[in-house]
Design goal:
- The complex is a heterodimer of chains A (about 170) and B (about 55).
- Chain A contains two helices and ten strands.
- Chain A has about 170 residues and is of the alpha+beta class.
- In chain A, strand 6 and strand 7 form a beta hairpin.
- By secondary structure, chain B is mainly alpha-helical.
- Chain B has a domain of about 25 residues.
- Chain B is built from two helices and one strand; from the N terminus they run H-H-E.
- Classes of the chains: A alpha+beta (about 170), B mainly alpha (about 55).
- At the A-B interface, helix 1 and strand 8 of A face helix 2 and strand 1 of B.
């Protein structure tokens, strides 16, 4: 087969482009550590969240290794706790679940975004750096009050966070 | 000049579509730049980002 030189050129270039796309996504996962939220967490009975040790009292808790865990309930039509207060320069693992219908959990303007499914726990680890206030919203239609379902995440300086805990 | 006179035979390798090549190069450059901005600026810089599920 006789392929023209120019044609070889752009065939090769498109291959390089595809390899480049795959390489950057791989770099994102391996180099930057960007993760995808999955359904690895064990299921939970959505009707008895009040009996669950984590979700009966939605809160932020400090772990022994200095990281934090936050237990959040997304329900018609609010996020609990609201605001979710976390310290700056911290690593927070969020556990989010729903007692009623499917909700969304989107930290506005960031890449933190997941579905919240009754019976499932969405688990994600996030690093918060500077003090900031983020909006939180539901991006899955969840009922008549969906448009008003919003919350806030307050990233506060470490000292302020510790004061607030006492 | 008749149509017959203006006809010129060239071989396969003598045909050089420089215009097409230029368009494709521009198109590829746009793709590469857009990909860079979309991934590294709009996505990766748009933190916080989920960094783990473990």
């Amino acid at each position: 087969m006789n392929i023209h030189t120019y044609e070889k050129l752009w065939l090769a270039a498109s291959m390089v482009l595809i390899v480049g796309f795959i390489a950057t996504v791989t770099y994102g996962a391996v180099g930057l550590g960007i993760a995808m939220i999955d359904d690895d967490e064990s299921t939970i009975d959505p009707d008895s969240l009040d009996e669950d040790e984590r979700f009966s009292d939605p809160r932020v808790e400090e772990m022994d290794d200095g990281t934090y865990e936050a237990y959040v309930v997304a329900e018609q039509y609010r996020f609990n706790p609201d605001p979710l207060v976390v310290p700056a320069n911290s690593t927070v693992t969020l556990y989010v679940t729903s007692p009623d219908v499917i909700h969304g959990f989107e930290v506005v303007g960031t890449n933190v975004n997941t579905m919240v499914i009754p019976g499932e726990v969405s688990k994600m680890t996030i690093e918060f750096e500077e003090s900031e206030e983020y909006g939180l919203l539901c991006n899955e239609y969840c009922g008549a009050g969906h448009h008003g379902m919003e919350g806030e995440i307050h990233v506060v300086p470490e000292e302020e966070f510790e004061e607030g805990e006492q | 000049m008749t149509a017959e006179e203006s006809k010129r035979e060239i071989t396969h390798d003598e045909f050089d579509p420089v215009g097409t090549l230029t368009l494709i190069v521009i198109y590829f450059a746009i793709l590469a730049i857009m990909w860079f901005f979309m991934y590294f600026i709009e996505f990766a810089e748009n933190g916080p980002t989920v960094i783990g599920v473990a």
